[in-house]
Amino acid sequence: MAVRQTQPIKYKRILLKLSGEVLGNHAAGECIDPAVVASMAERMRAVTDLGVQLAVVLGGGNIFRGTKGESRGIARTSGDYMGMLATIINGLALQNALEQTGLQTRLQTAIEMPKVAEPFVQRRALRHLEKGRIVIFAGGTGNPYFSTDTAAALRASEIGADVLIKATKVDGIYSDNPKTNPKASRFSVLSYQEALRRRLKVMDSTAFALCMDNHIPIVVCDFFDTNALVRVVRGDPVGTLVTELPDTPDRQE
Q1: Which residues pair with 56 in a beta bridge?
Q2: Is 70 inside any structural domain?
Q3: Could you read off the pLDDT of 198-229 as tens digits, one per residue?
Q4: Which has the closest alpha carbon to 36: 48, 16, 22, 55?
Q5: Is residue 45 part of a domain?
Q6: Which end of the chain is less congested by CB atoms within 10 angstroms, N or C?
Q7: pTM as predicted
Q8: Residue 216 to residues 78, 125, 159, 208, 235: CA-CA distances in angstroms?
Q9: Structural domain range at position 30
Q10: 253 part of a folded domain
């Protein structure tokens, strides 16, 4: 095991939510690129070296997305279960990469498949985290019609995470799509209520509401910024923080 560092950290137990798309290499046509996953594992190792307890929820959109399947004639329930299985494939890929770096991991799934992973058991997950193992939660919530963002908010609540970090392809939450609107401004801090009122697409409303009800702050940041995760756990201002705020205007950059 790596020697723990002594730098101060703000968040001691985190839930990291990753989009499935960040595992792939679109230029090469690969839905899972081992080099990309290995790079992810190194960034996660840097966080655990600070003494942080880390849990991860992965999406499955790089392989299959239930809502997209529905638009092509696949029943929503069947498509969602296919998407859940895709998250388990991604979880196995990440588990392998993390263990290649010498980290101890456990993969837990909401859909039981004992030859592949442990079933999700809250107390067992907490024990793994306390022992310094990275816990990967796969299979969503085990139910159709719930996104992996909602699964991340649910698992963050169940393990008592200090923060939910949503690592995406952009560096925070914007007032509009920055790719199509160059005048879009990035929020530095945003209230749960404002995020729900604006129906921001960075996370679904159920996930925002779960975090609000359980007082779990959300940090949205750019996962491809190699220092973002370490900076977030140290409490540096990175990306957009969604939290409880008094009734004052939300701040934008």
Answers
A1: 16, 136
A2: yes
A3: 888 788 899 999 999 999 999 999 988 999 99
A4: 22
A5: yes
A6: N
A7: 0.90
A8: 31, 18, 11, 9, 15
A9: 13-238
A10: no
